[in-house]
Prior knowledge:
By secondary structure, this protein is an alpha/beta fold. The chain contains five helices and eleven strands; from the N terminus they run ββαβββαββββαβαβα. The strands form three sheets. The chain has a seven-stranded mixed sheet with strand order 1-3-2-6-11-9-10, sandwiched between helices. Strands 4-5 form a two-stranded antiparallel sheet. A two-stranded antiparallel ribbon has the order 7-8.
Amino acid sequence: MSEYQPMNPARVVESTDPEPALLFSCEHAGNALPAGVDARGLIESHWAFDLGAAELVADIARRLGAPAVLAPFSRLWIDPNRSPRDPELIVQSCGGHPIPFNLGIDAAEREHRQLRWHGGFHDRLAEEISKHASLRLLVSIHTFTPTLRGLERPYSLGVLHDGPSDSVRALFRALRSEGFDPRDNEPYSGFDGMIYSIARHGVESGVPYVELEVRNDKTRSTMPARLARALRSALD
């Protein structure tokens, strides 16, 4: 197993509200890799991280005084939004491009990455959730591309869930009141293991959970303020 430079498993935005109702996570916030690792031109692409997601989460969390836990490392290294049993936990290729630093890694290297980064992120997220008994909703935020494999995605926002809970219904209503046309389990589905992280922590903590997918060319302008208003309204 190689000796890698230090790379943090989590970055925390501290709550300014002593009793926050919301907590945010961002599993694909960053594109950090260990020093000397060659990403072959993929490091600035959506394959490496969710473009605009970190800034969006930080902005919304600030507006609401809510805590947030972000993963600064690239999902090319290991994906914190995948189960340890998922074959896409450490991908061998993406977009037709091989990932050289993932090819042929041994069991010791997989365990090292899983414990240090995947486990480190989830431990920190669980710790932050446990600090706030006031939490009423856990929200994971991701971004998606306007097109994928030639298919257009003409909508700006998707709500991913694994069941029509009261919290999810309230959020849909609040988003529509804010002028959004939220898509139900698009561009991915919460029933397909695509919300692993927030579902895991929601189940463990007993706090309702949901994942928001925002198109990555729509994350700025009025998006943070509108989402913040909708999230606040959903809890009223």
